[in-house]
UniProtKB/TrEMBL annotation:
This is Putative ferrous iron transport protein B. PROSITE patterns: G_FEOB (PS51711). Residues 67-228 form the FeoB-type G domain. It comes from Acetomicrobium hydrogeniformans ATCC BAA-1850. One of its GO terms (molecular function) is ferrous iron transmembrane transporter activity. The chain crosses the membrane at residues 266-288, 308-330, 351-372, 392-414, 426-450, 456-476, 520-539, 546-565, 585-605, 617-639.
Length: 640
């Protein structure tokens, strides 16, 4: 059965801009999502994998055996990372939306005495790149490999064959993996592997990466990889050949609409979809908060109070109750007692801020985010919010980096790579740094100000959201260019694999602990030293005009400046200052918007370059001051 080029292509929405209609695959604006790139090889914080700029295609082991370089390539969201994880035993993050992998990962596997180095290449629809992730894919292929494993989604063979043919035309020994055959079976799609092998001239295996089905056949097939007889051709000819191949190798039988199909329709309908999205977002926030608070009240607070507190009390006695070392480690005793939030010792406030205030929310946030990712809800949000996001110069898919930024700005900014234009990346990255508070900061917002009244928390979130909207709108107006139309491939809803979900959660929270703990402890140490050294009044004096305009006491500036190290620590520093709720709101809003924390700063530099970073910083400081002054004036008016 022959289907049209886009018959299998689940494009939910396409819009015309400048009279261009982008339904064509070759100029397909593959603004395809984004992902949790925190572990990717190009992440400055990476410690799990290495960047390989090495142009040598193959290396040798100590025993002189040649290591074969295998590239795992294919369209976005076809299961490349899932196959990579199955083959190497490493954990590459898989999520149910296109563009999860934006850098690349390396791992190795030994099969029958042969060692293979596998590279999980970012997804691409074509070898004529339309975004940064596709450029990375193209570059890696150009660097060469011994074998290319082309991963295709069996439910969308026609679309997937485009890239497959382009790769085969290059003449690399290859293997085709038809992944997701479980879903193809449900959809009544049957693909004859032998016919496909004959048509393409390379070995073809079918797999279900999430269960491991077919993975051993894939391992065997690596040794049989061979170049295809397919020669380079033009675009039209390629599509004609794809049509012929699909007609000969694929059969589709009729099936009835399922509940899942109906739910998929409801989720993107302009009315029911919006209602559902508000429900999902509301429920997500509620669950995150409930789980976070539950963990604090029933696990972490009791642990600190019952177990850690007596240990620190003994250590405090041992150190004589005061002195330099005592104040650094245990902190200052308040009324003869330890105060988790105000003592400022590395072992007291340092560990408490990290584990009992921020960590519980990190766990609950990533649990819910990972669930939404794996079910496949995020691309649907992208479609629903596309119209709003276009008003602020962004493609609908920018919602995904933004949501990731709510966990940590670093992966959020990395994920902007799949946005097509440099202009869009700049807007998205700046908006994330300015107005998207990371989970650490949010945990502290709830901890510091939530207890005084939820209305104060609402004011902070409303201020951040308003700035996000207005700044986006203004940047969209003043920066030249336009944001491209939304063409998003919407994956089907999938039941998450709880094993993979657990692994992803573990990966993210352990990453948080490894990366954040040293910075939190250093932050507390520096804060402690600054406060006891007496240099704070000097800095505050220098910044007096700003302090005056913001209506804050001079010490608050010290805390805001320390936000450069860690925002959550900085909020912790505001707590002992005895600020009014209004002052706390101003300080937290200014703190959220001024500088990104150091980790985000490094990523911004890497992604935007020095000139754009400078522009972004100027925007951040100006907006932070404007928002702070506006809020302070508003509060003064309300009081008088
Ligand atoms: N049902 C089913 N789901 C699968 C299979 N393989 C992967 N998935 C799911 O498909 C989604 C995409 O998988 P990934 O491994 O992230 O895909 P990818 O090709 O690496 O995606 P990008 O990095 O975005 O290019 C995830 O939700 C996986 O759990 C499969 O064989 N069957
Ligand atoms: Mg991937």
């Amino acid at each position: 059965m022959r289907m049209s080029c886009h018959g299998l292509f689940d494009i939910l929405k396409k819009r015309k801009t400048n009279g261009r209609n982008n339904a064509n695959l070759d100029d397909f604006e593959s603004n395809t999502g984004c992902g949790m790139g925190i572990h990717c090889s190009e992440c400055p914080l990476s410690f799990r994998c290495s960047h390989n700029g090495n142009k040598d295609v193959s290396k040798t082991t100590k025993s002189g055996q040649k290591i074969k370089k295998v590239l795992l390539m294919g369209n976005p969201n076809v299961g490349k990372s899932a196959i990579f994880s199955r083959l190497t035993g490493l954990h590459a993050i898989s999520s149910n939306y296109p563009g999860t992998t934006v850098g690349f990962l390396e791992g190795s596997v030994s099969i029958d005495g042969e060692t293979y180095k596998l590279i999980d290449v970012p997804g691409a629809y074509t070898l004529d790149p339309t975004n940064e992730a596709e450029e990375v894919a193209r570059r890696i292929l150009d660097e060469g490999g011994d074998i290319v494993v082309i991963v295709a989604d069996a439910t969308a063979l026609e679309r997937n064959l485009y890239l497959a043919l382009q790769v085969l035309e290059k003449g690399y020994p290859s293997v085709l993996v038809l992944n997701m055959v479980d879903e193809a079976r449900h959809k009544g799609i049957h693909i004859d592997l032998q016919t496909l092998e004959r048509e393409l001239g390379i070995p073809v295996v079918s797999t279900v990466a999430v269960t491991g089905e077919g993975i051993s056949a894939l391992k065997d097939a690596l040794a049989k990889a061979r170049p295809s007889f397919i020669l380079p051709m033009g675009k039209d000819e390629r599509w004609r050949l794809i049509g012929d191949i699909v007609m000969r190798s694929q059969q589709v039988t009729h099936r009835h609409h399922t509940f899942r199909d109906r739910l998929e329709d409801i989720s993107v309908h302009p009315v029911s979809g919006l209602i559902l999205s508000l429900l999902v977002i509301g429920l997500s926030f509620y669950t995150i908060r409930t789980i976070g608070e539950g963990l604090i009240d029933y696990v972490f607070d009791p642990l600190f109070d019952r177990f850690w507190s007596p240990l620190l009390a003994s250590l405090s006695n041992l150190l004589g109750g005061s002195g330099f070392l005592h104040d650094i480690l245990i902190g200052h005793l308040i009324d003869g007692n330890l105060d988790w939030e105000q003592s400022f010792g590395i072992l007291s406030t340092g560990l408490y801020v990290e584990f009992a205030m921020v960590f519980p929310y990190i766990i609950s946030f990533y649990l819910i985010l990972s669930l939404l990712e794996d079910i496949g809800y995020l691309p649907r949000l992208a479609v629903l919010f596309d119209a709003l996001l276009h008003r602020i110069g962004l493609h609908g898919f920018a919602i995904v980096p933004t949501l990731l930024g709510l966990g940590c700005n670093v992966p959020g900014i990395l994920a902007t790579r799949v946005l097509e234009s440099e202009r869009e990346r700049f807007i998205a990255a700046t908006l994330i740094s300015v107005a998207v508070p990371c989970a650490g900061l949010q945990a502290m917002i709830f901890g510091a100000i939530g207890s005084l009244g939820m209305r104060y928390v609402v004011v902070i979130y409303a201020s951040l959201f308003l700035v996000w909207l207005i700044l986006g709108y203004v940047l969209n107006k003043i920066l030249s260019g336009q944001s491209p139309e939304l063409i998003v491939e919407i994956p089907p809803y999938r039941l998450p694999s709880f094993r993979d979900l657990g692994l992803k959660l573990w990966f993210r929270i352990s990453g948080f602990l490894l990366e954040a703990t040293p910075l939190v402890l250093i932050g507390i140490l520096i804060a402690n030293l600054i406060y006891s050294s007496g240099i704070l009044p000097l800095i505050s004096n220098f910044l007096k005009p700003a302090v005056y305009l913001l209506g804050l006491p001079p010490e608050a500036i010290g805390a805001i400046l320390l936000g450069f190290l860690r925002k959550d620590v900085a909020v912790g520093l505001l707590l002992p200052l005895g600020l009014t709720p209004q002052q706390l709101i101003v300080a937290i809003v200014v703190l959220s918007m001024t500088f990104p924390c150091i980790a985000t700063f490094v990523v911004l530099f890497k992604e935007l370059g020095a000139k754009r970073l400078l522009q972004s910083i100027i925007i951040m400081i100006s907006i932070a001051m404007l928002a702070g002054i506006a809020l302070n004036s508003l509060f003064s008016l309300m009081i008088t």
